[in-house]
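pinned: reference chain
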Amino acid sequence: MSKATLHIAWTADDGPTSFTSDMLSVFNKTLNKPIPVTWYVQWDNLVINKRHGFYKNLQDKHKHEIAIHGVSTIANHIHWFPTNNKKHASYASIEEATTAISSFKNHLIEHGMRAKFVRAPTGLHSELMAYLSKLGVANNRAD
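pinned: its structure tokens
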């Protein structure tokens, strides 16, 4: 019987927040060695908290990954697909959202960071279900 290797990916969403440093200390102390994490960053939080250097250091020195999560400079959790959701705003078009994603990626590059991953603000499934609802497509899931 062959042995399988299990890989675990640690991810952290919605940063930076007041908990980011505490979370980092846990990832640095677990298993007596640092654990690399993918940090899904929101552009508005990054700008407000002025944490560009902190995240660049995570990527360069600690080998963590920076990923794109929220792509607005003024608000977070804006749906990337147009929706009728009352809880979160949405971009007017998918093209507007992809432009925002590209702009945030370029902003990260300008600050010495590179992002290989993106995660929709409320999760891809939630994003698509809200978009389909706006289009009038019925939800026939049997939950």
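why pinned: DSSP finds five helices and four strands in the chain. The two ends are 38 Å apart (CA to CA).
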